[in-house]
Amino acid sequence: MQKLQLGCGTALLLVASMPMTAMAETDAPSPWGGSASVFYSQNGYDKDDYRSLRSLHWSATANYKISDNYSGYLSSGGYRTYEDKTGDFFTDSVIGLSRSSLFSFGDTGKVGASLQFTIPTSETSRKEDLNTAARLGFSVSGQAVGINFSIAPRYRKNFHQYKTTVNGKVLTEHVVSVVSSVGYGIGDAYLSGSIIGGTSWTYSSVRRDWTYVGQLSASYKFTDALKGALSASNSGVYFDAERGTLGNIDLFNEKAATYTATLTYSF
């Protein structure tokens, strides 16, 4: 994996904060904004167990408001692992454009859309000779009886330099997924649950398993800029593509689940 030479979160934070000075001088609203996050995650196994997974992640996102309805964004990050190969590594970066509302419905409902491209900065993407990936997503969101809800179907197309097996690995061409979430706010606290399910196809049109990740989260807004969150997530297979049967659906496994603590600073 590629060693980090410069904290990309720091670099993005500096870039995103530069227009803030101009805003203070002119008192005009700045089109720039963003956030920086750090989170620690581990599963339920003891750290001496070979199945233990522990890591520290960081990321930063810079947003630019193009108009009332359009925004551009750039996001990147990295992580440090504490098992097997340790060190600091890049994740993939993304650059994208989002439209907050294609149209509205009811009192609170709206449909948004986004298009983003992957910058292959991780070692995994470089080893797979990934040039880029394009992801088109839509989101349907609204509120009912105080509960926020959203559902977001997404489609991703990978563009590799080669379409054959690379380093013994069959490459993925298409990925489809759906993210659903519900949430409820209580003062400065927010409780939410989400689930993402999806599948993928190789360049030879072989479909992968249908997999899922479910997550429960509780967050608290300490200030207008600082927020903390605790979450637990579980993953599994709900349809085995090779056998054509139901997979290993597991609603919650306290050992295999991933537990995460996050701090986010918005600017």
From TrEMBL:
Leader sequence residues: 1-24
Keyword terms of this UniProt record: Signal
Claim: Signal is one of the keywords in the record: yes
Name assigned to this protein: Outer membrane receptor protein
Species name: Grimontia sedimenti
Lineage: Bacteria, Pseudomonadati, Pseudomonadota, Gammaproteobacteria, Vibrionales
